[in-house]
Amino acid sequence: VKRGLAATIWTVYGRPKIFKKEIEGEGSAWVVTRLLKKGCKGDDVKEMQKRLIERGYSCGSCGADGSFGGATEKAVIAFQKAYWPNRPEEWDGLAGKRTLTALGAECKW
């Protein structure tokens, strides 16, 4: 079974993530009160983009800009494929409760 690096504890450089310098805010949950999908804008989208980028998924040339566009949708799908490799029904590009929880969010809706 092939899995992306984001689905494991290993980094691109072959070191376990436990040895990686703690990224500010990575361990803390952030609150999301809505489904995030293409067209959404806001701080919750920006935080999701930061979490995706920390895990090695590109959200486009603008990085974490708070706008859920095509590049962010592709990053969400790539994350979903790596996190749930045997569940193609999860690969929808929507950041719902399961996807956001996997990224460290606390969903309140």
Helix content: 25-40%
DSSP strand content: 5-15%
Task: Report the structural category.
Answer: mainly alpha
Distance between the termini: 35 Å
Number of strands: 2
| Widest sheet, order of strands | 1-2
Q: Please, could you describe this protein's structure?
A:
- The model is unreliable at 17-25 (pLDDT under 50).
- 29% of the residues lie in helices and 6% in strands.
- It is globular, with a radius of gyration of 13 Å.
- The protein has 109 residues and is mainly α.
- A two-stranded parallel sheet has the order 1-2.
- It has helices at residues 43-54, 70-83, 97-102; strands at 30-32, 105-107.
- The protein is built from 3 helices and 2 strands; from the N terminus they run βαααβ.
Summarize this structure briefly.
The chain is mostly helical and 109 residues long. Helices cover 29% and strands 6% of the residues. It has a two-stranded parallel ribbon.
Please give the structural blueprint.
Elements: E1 30-32, H1 43-54, H2 70-83, H3 97-102, E2 105-107
Descriptors:
3 helices; two-stranded parallel ribbon; 2 strands
